[in-house]
Amino acid sequence: MPIKQQSILVVGGAGYIGSHMVLALQQEGFDVVVLDNLSTGHRSALFSKNSVIGDMGDKKILSDLFTQYSIAAVMHFASSIEVAESMQNPIKYYQNNTASTLTLIEQMLAHGIKHFIFSSTAAVYGEPMSALIAEEHSLQPINPYGKSKWMIEMMLKDIAMSHSLHYAVLRYFNAAGADPLGRTGERHEPESHLIPLVLQVAKGDRPHVTVYGRDYPTGDGTCIRDYIHVNDLCAAHLLALKKMMADKKNRILNLGNGCGHSVQEVIDVARKVTGFPIPCLEGARRAGDPAYLVANPALAKCELGWQPQYGLEDMVKHAWLFMQKHSLLKQSCHASTLLAGIQQY
Predict the structure, then answer these.
(1) What does residue 300 show for φ and ψ, rounded to 5 degrees?
(2) Measured distance CA(105)–CA(167) in Å, rounded
(3) For residues 209 and 198, is the Cβ–Cβ distance under 8 A?
């Protein structure tokens, strides 16, 4: 049951996964407070009346927030996530992801908040050593993004040994899809994820999608990845929150479907869902792209009683619905702005 007269703080609650989490928590009856600096989040995705615009690395903002609201637990989604950018600007990743998270945890503990859920990543594993990656896989991240998340995991382990901190680390594979009602969805700028890139071609925003390599040792020669619907991720977070508050145990869990889909499969499903031809260009392999990257989610299913509900076609359908609705909304806002300008003269 929800904690009475207490709230869940969602840090990064105006972003892709965070905004879905806010909706899921509210549907379960939780009061939600959002903290987001809107650097990559969107004001239109602030679904809580209790929303604070600010940075999680700002001690004063955090102290004021924890003083104003009665917070039972913190869910942390506010991270920089672009692997290529992390290679070019590692300072940003160690500052925003690692240092700012340490500030957040420090202020939590200073205000007596002991429950923390952290969105980590499969990037902490580095190059996969097995077909299905379980939590016991070695942690050897190969880029500053993965390293910044790995450092947070190590911090949590150390801090929990000396403080009464309870945490769940949830390692995502490829988050995809959107709210089935089209209220929120994926809109990174610039976009780097496969499903929205493919759908942008169908929508006419891009001339083609590039397939980087068709000579991998897979069924159709393209890379295989584990895609997990964003709502299934949120369902796992809710279960992890309730479990942690009940038994006070710390957990590290993979979140994935446990089955992979190739790049070509994603393109074919997008063609089916949208009814549009999606032109492809052939590109060379990218350095560091493994042929097969799929989660073993058995531990999450066992520990949480979690079972993903959505398949690849659902993910593409929901992402396409959101993209169309968001496009119509932008056109409507643009038309209203033009009309307002005309009326002023």
Answers:
(1) -65, -40
(2) 11
(3) yes
For 189-234, how does the pLDDT look when each residue is reduced to its tens digit (9 = 90+)? 888 899 999 999 999 999 999 999 999 999 999 999 999 999 999 9
Is 145 a known active-site residue? yes
**DSSP states along 133-202:** E-TTS-----SHHHHHHHHHHHHHHHHHHHS--EEEEEEESEEE---TTSSS----SS---HHHHHHHHH
Please check whether residue 337 lies inside any domain of the structure: no
By residue range, what is the domain housing residue 20? 7-329
CATH number at residue 139: 3.40.50.720
Q: Give me 86's structure tokens.
A: 């992390």
Structure tokens at 133: 């990656």
Residue 345 located in a structural domain: no
Using CB atoms within 10 A of its CB, is residue 77 exposed (0-12), middle (13-18) or buried (19+)? buried
Residue 208 lies in a domain: yes
Predicted confidence (pLDDT) per residue in 230-273, tens digit:
999 999 999 999 999 999 999 999 999 999 999 999 999 999 99
pTM of the model: 0.92
Total domains in the chain come to 1
Q: Which of 125, 145, 216, 227 is catalytic?
A: 145
